[in-house]
Amino acid sequence: MKRFHLHVGVADLDASVTFYTALFGTGPTVTKPDYAKWMLEDPRINFAISMRADAAKGIEHVGMQVDDRDELAEVYGRLRAADRPVLEEGATTCCYARSEKSWIADPDGVVWEAFLTQGDSTTYGDNPELDRLASDNAAEGACCAPGTPLAKTSCC
């Protein structure tokens, strides 16, 4: 079963963990000094926050997390059908997890990722070069607009 993913950049991790714990009625399932994640069933979402000096605050990207390779193949097929540039990152470490993922941006510059988590990591990981997904139609300040800091620092 697929799970919606939303990643938000925050200025104060502790204050944000307190807020989202109250909002969701439960604490995060993963906490690190610069990151927290809630794997909620109702609503079914992977909600993550991070406090990174080089990242924008607010919604960084959205995505679709899958449970197995068959679902990943299905979602990858949908990315190709969207007829937009796809960044096939493949096996990577990001947000303290080992994953396989690809990225796409909608016509307005909203960055989406599709990924299968394959295990934990002790490091935050690398960031893909999402500026290759930039759209000429992306709003100024959109997360994948050319030249914006988030275009090079977003990670899931």
Automatic annotation (TrEMBL):
Residues 2-117 form the VOC domain. It comes from the Bacteria. The keyword Cytoplasm does not apply. InterPro entries: ArsI/CadI-like, Cadmium-induced_rsp, Glyas_Bleomycin-R_OHBP_Dase, Glyas_Fos-R_dOase_dom, VOC_core. GO terms for biological process: response to cadmium ion. GO terms for molecular function: dioxygenase activity; lyase activity. It holds the Pfam family Glyoxalase. Keywords: Dioxygenase, Lyase, Oxidoreductase. NCBIfam families: ArsI_CadI_VOC. PANTHER family: CADMIUM-INDUCED PROTEIN CADI (PTHR41294). This is Catechol 2,3-dioxygenase-like lactoylglutathione lyase family enzyme. It comes from Novosphingobium marinum.
